[in-house]
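Milestone M4 deliverable, item 7.
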Amino acid sequence: MLSHFDWLRRSRTGAELLATLQYLAASPELPSAQEGLWPPHSAQQGPCLRCWVYARAPTGRRNARYCRTCQHILSKAWKLGDLSRHSVVVWGFANDLPRQLRVESGFRKHHVVYSYVHDDNRFLLMFHRRALYPWLQDVALYHGADLKGFLQIFPTTGLREVVMGELLCRIVHNEARFPMDRLRVRFFADRDQVFIPHQLEREGVLTFDFADFLRTLEMASVFRSILQPDEQQALYRLLKMPQSGASQFYWGRLLGALSAQARDLLEAWKLRWWSEPHINLLYDLVQYVGFHQSH
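Output delivered:
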């Protein structure tokens, strides 16, 4: 018999994970309540080719492949690919569940697609990546320093990438790396980064104190608001160039084309002297924030 988390682990893509969360929200009872377990695998026929536990659904055709639950999840997943590509996943391990998980209306303005509560300390959220920053701000507002634990943020996967369920298992495996003395955030901008965390830790661009990560997101929002997209790309290409007389010339030409506000930002941040990993992190986070709201 499969648990709710077992069904999540069987997701091959982000779309399947989203479809599974939808299914579990609509059908809180386990599928085994309606479906029978399949007997041992035989030479003539076997169980569902996706879950490998339940009997294949009778379809009137000889090539039935999936049980009813897997059929439902796969049919829904085909329609959720675009939504999944713009979503982000958060796995949390904390001393308490965030208020948004205990107050259903707390999700509405942040467009949380679906959530899964594993137990009193573990949860999974999936929402549009631009909703990450306001959701984290709400966590800070409602909990302050009372919430302690570890939030891991990572993207979804597609059919030609690492299996979503494997990614989720690796994330869960890392949840107890730190003591529960304060709230930490680990941000994976790319799926492959989940499998090379030690390299990112050495570069200082993976694990953050919660307040530091909020400040970094705020910087990304300001950066996105002040520089136009073409200016951001021109700056990125220039920051990647080795320091030389030519790069100095292009740097001066770029500064001359920017607004005074953008020039002041680059000067105040000393962005030209940042390390490459920190530059990449800033540009990765730009995809996760909206425009800065000045007060």
